[in-house]
Protein 1
Amino acid sequence: MPYYLWNMFAWLFGILWVIIVCFMTIGLLRSGHATRISERAGERAVATGAGFTVVILFALIIMSSAIAREISIVQSQPNELKVRVTGHQWWWEFQYQDDPPDHLLTTANELHIPIGRPVRMEVRSGDVIHSFWVPSLSPKIDAIPDHFNEIVFQANQVGTYRGQCAEFCGLQHAHMGFLVVAETPAVFQNWLNHQLEPSQESLSTEEQQGRHVFLSSPCVVCHTVRGTSAFGGTAPDLTHLASRTTIGAALLSNTPGNLSGWITDSQRVKPGTQMPPIDIASQDMQPLLSYLDALK
């Protein structure tokens, strides 16, 4: 609904701008030909303009209030999906708070939601102030350290929606994006069930070699891969990394080439990010990429 309100405001103000420019142009063209109008005619023109303005403002207030009321009605529905959002420099952590407790799922930078169901977002920050914003689905809400803000929105159409940090939060603020994937309830439930599973155990020889490279690298200090000895909690959970369409907070497509460049020198791709360059031997890179590609 905020999207429709935005379109309505944009069209209305665009039309008004064109009308004002037309009147200004006419006035300038006639500036050399003075015409005298009566005082009464001038008063009527001013009154007409003022009345027109008041009508437009009241119409906008009524439309805004109606949209706000619809949003508040969505917030009161009992079947909402609860997701805790934490903004980091510079990525987004999503933790699904669905019952029972063993359905607690943490993922990063890609939020999957079912259509036709309200989603309650508990938004906070792990460092500085960020702002959670999905222009096509929800208004902005600040992510503040040690404080929860809440927002409820609902997607009614299947699709992928772009989200963005809307509060300047440092060097890579502009590259702190995420994706919201709205799916049918059945597809979402299948996705959720798969994401709750640990990492794949059946691996090829090359993938097993890559897992050894991963577990013996500094990656395990920050990242988690459920089902392995990697339990780092300060960086994105990689358990199902290969199922995501992007890396680097929606900065790059999730391809082997981009992933290789990100691992070896993330600072070149995203200067100032908290991930340091990782020194991986050239003969170990392909097995590592094969293992990461198996984390579907």
Note: The chain has three domains: 2-31+38-75, 81-195, 205-293.
Protein 2
Amino acid sequence: MESVISFNDQTLSLPSSFFNNLREWIISTAKFEGYRVGELIITFCSDPELHKINLEYLHHDTFTDIITFDYFTDGYISGEIYISLDRIKENATKFKKSLDNELLRIIIHGVLHLLGYEDKTHDQKNVMDSKEDYYLSLLNK
């Protein structure tokens, strides 16, 4: 199976250059973790759109920065990742990070969820944060 990674910017606010090298980064991350990438769709949307998805599919009446739907099959990570650019902008300001850094962090966060990592407990969150930092450092080299 060939890796198919698609980016869908519903907000039309991200420059096309932002997506350079992201496919290779995601594929390398999965490979390092012992998996291959099947079909992955990453959609960038607004708060209202992600809130609607959160209500409809997860029955959560909250705003969030990311929702990941996992379609793992036969050793291939596959799925859909939805990211609210409104939340990313707010979080970048809140955490004093660049918009690009926060967006890349949340992208790899979603990929890590597809790789089986969770962040519900303090220990799980620490592992997830450490993995995010590691894979971000690889992209920046």
Note: The first strand starts at residue 4 and ends at 9.
Protein 3
Amino acid sequence: MMKKHNFGAGPCILPPSVFEKAAESVLNFEESGLSILEISHRSEAFVSVFESARSLVLELMELSPNSHTVLFLHGGASLQFSMVPENFLTRAAAYANTGVWSQKAIEEAKKVGIVDILYDGSIDGYKKTPDLKLLKESLQSGHDYLHLTTNNTIYGTQYPSFESFPKPLVVDMSSDIFSCQRSYETFDLIYAGAQKNIGPAGTTLVVIKNEFLEQLSPRIKFSLLDYQKHIKAESMYNTPSVFAVYTSLLNLKWLKAQGLSEIARRNSEKATLLYEAIDHSDLFEGFADKKNRSQMNITFTIANSSVAKRFESLCEEAGIVGIKGHRLVGGYRASMYNALSKESVETLVEVIKYTESNA
């Protein structure tokens, strides 16, 4: 079978070694005679998986278990849109609207309390992210927290860096977590759906600074939305997504073996390679502002519809899949998560150059 170059936005590509070990464990988990799909989440073997996964998250983030708590929960990042305000919004919350996912987070927070939108990217078509200094100047004493989406998969924008804020900083890091060098101490709460750079769909990583937990709202209505209940139950308030957590552990081990500095170098190299091909083309045009372009999701368009059809046909012949852009932006989107090889990016660049030279 021809090798596929998977540029899909998610669920995404994972390292071959992770797929192989996960597949092996579906038949026989750690020589237990049981499948990982049927093993008890209360068993000693799976408790060890959970503990190892939490420990590796903190190690990769260079955080301490004394200062931060790690959870693996259900519901994807979308449920966190509700959980965050349910737990922490008591007066007012500040949000930056940089795309679809931040807009959804804003809509959920408004159901809980007052939301101040400090930046509205829809005015500029979501082609850039806000200036952090301007956000900092806009924060008020009555804000419980500031919520940001670190990377925007649909529009292809990403915050180039972060800094500390006078108010707690909550981030949706679903699509670029563990993809670059960051000071994770900067953030008071991080949440991320697993299906980009952590593991398969089905579990959601939440990392909370323990000091931030002191701000918990006293009026949380629903048990499943209560962080403290999940913390006390060690992410087992209800049955966890066993297979998704286990496969995430395998990928976390792979990330540790590579090292985040090496992962960051590779991602920068891949993004530079593709952006240079787009920028030097007369047919292809990048969507996002150059200062805020994402390394994870590269969005671009072709004005000529006949050339676009030819490009798509060439991509198919080359085994390139998942390249179609989101319906809100159109064009194309190359999602280049950690496990995507440089070879796949080189193949896409070759197709772009061939399309250019034969238009």
Note: The chain has a mean pLDDT of 96.
Protein 4
Amino acid sequence: MSPTSATAMRTKRLIAAIVLAVAGLATLWASEAVADPAAVQSFSAANSAARIKQIKHYWTPQRMRHATPLTATPTRRDVARAARATTPTSGRGKMKTVPPTLGRAASTNSEARTPFANPISNPTVYPYRTQGKLFFKSRGGSYVCSATVVNTPTQRVIFSAGHCAVDGGVWSRKVAFVPGYHNGHSPYGTFVATELRSINGWIQNENFSYDISAAVLGGTRKVAAVVGSRGIKFNLARQQNFVSFGYPAAPPFNGSTLYSCPSAYKGQDPTTSNPRTQWITCNMTAGSSGGGWIVQSHYLNSVNSYGYKSQPGRMYGPYFGTGAVNLYNAVKNLAP
């Protein structure tokens, strides 16, 4: 082979290598752009006992009272834009059930069944004490949502809305949970989140079909051992009878009382992508975000997510399908 031919061959090989490298990068970029919307991401919220103690002391009763209720009132255009940006999935798999636990003491109180939101007179008894208020810092402000203790092997996990954990790509900080909160009192103390997790579809696109988060609670006490837990069900038929719980804080509510909204499944939001969100009749306001939708008296099966200003008395929540299963599996064995 002549020197000229050898040089030409080397040039062709170099060009081919460059083409392959560029193609590989393009494939990587493309895979990132279409990342599985039901996959889970994490954020470390508190990584030491000293930090947990600091956050617990930060949330004084006064700071809790003055925290701003977080709300999600998107327009249909906002919801549609996020849905279009997310790779569609069926969101439906095999039905799965995790049973509840009772905690230290059970209660014979029954869940109220009246139209729209009605107050729970004593949220310190089971199962109401598995519901609680979630306090956190975000973008310089102090905010409040609602959350639910769910049964896991570690007894340290709560579920809430995705927008209570990460908003606009910014993760919440100084996250603390107060089960059974009532009129400014924290009957079982304050539990600090050491890790937050949410789902790609929410984190990357703010797709309300994936507006779910989970937090792992640190400290020496295990929250579910203290107050008990709700069970959790996935991939159920949508036609359920729900009881939604939360701490609404915007008028006419004041955030000091746990409320419940009993309602049958009413329908889906056609603006969303699969798995489409669903709605119930409920007039709870900002602050109730993340509160649990309970089915069959014991099982978490959605959370308060959003509402439209043009539809008062209607609450939307995500379907607990593949994304929710992935989230539960990602956190169920985590401990501080």
Note: The domain at 36-104+111-331 is CATH 2.40.10.10 (Thrombin, subunit H).
